[in-house]
Amino acid sequence: MLQENKQAKREKLLLLIVRKRNEMIRLANSNGLLSNETIRCSQELDLLLNKFQLKE
C-alpha cells in the first residue's frame, strides 16, 4: 500500500512536469526565450525536476 502511494505521488509529479514544460514552451514561443515569464517558468520546471530526482 505504501509503495502504491509513492508511485501515485511520482506519477502526479511527472504530470506536473509535463504540464510545466508545455507551459514553458508556449511562453517561449509567444514571448521569447529571455522573457521574465519564460525564465520564471523554466525555474519552476527546474524545481519540479529536482524534486523528481530526489524521489528516485
From TrEMBL:
> What name does this protein carry?
Spo0E like sporulation regulatory protein
InterPro entries reported in the protein's UniProt record: HLH_DNA-bd_sf (IPR036638), Spo0E-like (IPR018540), Spo0E-like_phosphatase (IPR053028), Spo0E-like_sf (IPR037208)
Which superkingdom does the taxonomy of this entry point to? Answer: Bacteria
- Molecular function terms from GO: protein dimerization activity
GO annotation, biological process: regulation of sporulation
